[in-house]
Amino acid sequence: MVQKRDVLRESPSQTAGPYVHIGCTPNFTGLAMYGGDLGATMKTGPVSGQEITIKGTVFDGMNTALRDAMVEIWQPDAAGFFPAANETRGKADPNFTGWGRSAGHMDTGEFSFETVKPGAVPYPDGRMQAPHITAWIVARGINIGLHTRIYFEDESVANATDPILMRLEHQSRIPTLLAKKEAQGLYRFDIHLQGPTETVFFDM
Amino acid sequence: MISKIRGYIPRDRNWQPDALTPPYKTSVQRSPQSALLSFPTTLSEETSPIFSQTILGELDNDLIHNYAASGESAIGPRIIVHGRVLDENGSGVSGALLEFWQANAGGRYRHKKESYLAPLDPNFGGCGRTITGADGSYEFRTIQPGPYPWPNGMNDWRPAHIHFSIFGHSFAQRLMTQMYFEGDPHIKLCPIVGILKSQEAVDALTAPLDMNRTVPMDSRAYKFDMVLRGRRQTYFENRKDGL
Questions:
Q1: Which of A133, A158, B12, B135 fits a disulfide with B92 by CB distance 3.0 to 4.6 angstroms?
Q2: For the complex shown, is ipTM > 0.85?
Q3: Do A23 and B101 touch (CB under 8 A)?
Q4: Chain A contacts of B81, Cβ < 8 Å?
Q5: B41-60: per-residue pLDDT in tens?
Q6: Closest residue to A125, CB basis, from B21, B28, B240
Q7: Is A65 helix (H, G, I), strand (E, B) or coil?
Q8: Does the annotation mark B235 as catalytic?
Q9: CB B178 within 8 Å of CB B145
């Protein structure tokens, strides 16, 4: 026998199930708890930068909208700083939380975030990444939470040199990672769990 | 010696469940079919919001009372669930946000879309939350949930379980899981437990009875530790010009 490695294994994931909203957004389900749902508001006061709305729907392989999903997003402020304990490059906008959580509309499943257009942050090797928002999707039938990124269709110059987007073997899939501009300050980012327009999901 | 922190240890996809697990039918249309795009964690995944203890109310970690009328309490076997949130390196994860939700003692969730005939308990909401202490420890009080039937096969029942959402120090660590109870005969029959790839993985989600933490004449206790991804730590850095 070789020596035992002194490491633990990550807890195995299990689905969030059909009632994830009871646990994470109880007020959305009609349970008055905690004085409000966490992640419901990303702006706690006047914020710097361009304020935007991102709307979208999560679709299954039959193109049916999920109405029991939960989407979380995490992003830097407009200057590219994270409101995080381990942000060492500068101080983030004090009125911006960077984190949002949406249960989606009870009937349509459409999720919505009121946020700011994120600034760019560097890749570990120093290259700049295109502005993006990190997203995480859980729902009944999803065995382990799905990570993806929301890039912006109107950032084509930055997108062209983004280290992650450049890494994609099938460049034709890049549009699945781009939020489409529908109006000034309004973007749409639909998520397809499978099918010909399946969103690119990440393992990082 | 100075160690450099260089991102997170990659997730072990041979240990974690697959996306497509046909016996759990809902996964069939909700599982990505393309390979995941792999890349090392960046600042976007190595950071996370800060959750302060100040957001917590006194009863947030007491499901027996946090939805109950004054002077009343939820019906069911009274239990304490406690443990630690650790990372793969064995360190306690402090300040982790834990949210938990569950069915009542009859196996019924308080949700508009829930149709199981077992009754609601007027004094039980079914959700709670807490934030781990400096050593990653946590505890909460609840009633033991009941098993319940669900539409999958013709006669599938979920073992009694408590759902957990775990938010550690980074978005890369984000995880949801479920806790099962030692000795529940439904564990080995459940298609959702069945997606786990080994008995070791099932055991990792099964909480043992912990007599040392019971409160005599009041509550039994179950111990449930959770493990999040750990950070890579090495003195040696990659050369900047190459892989």
A1: B135
A2: yes
A3: yes
A4: none
A5: 999 999 999 999 999 999 99
A6: B240
A7: strand
A8: no
A9: no
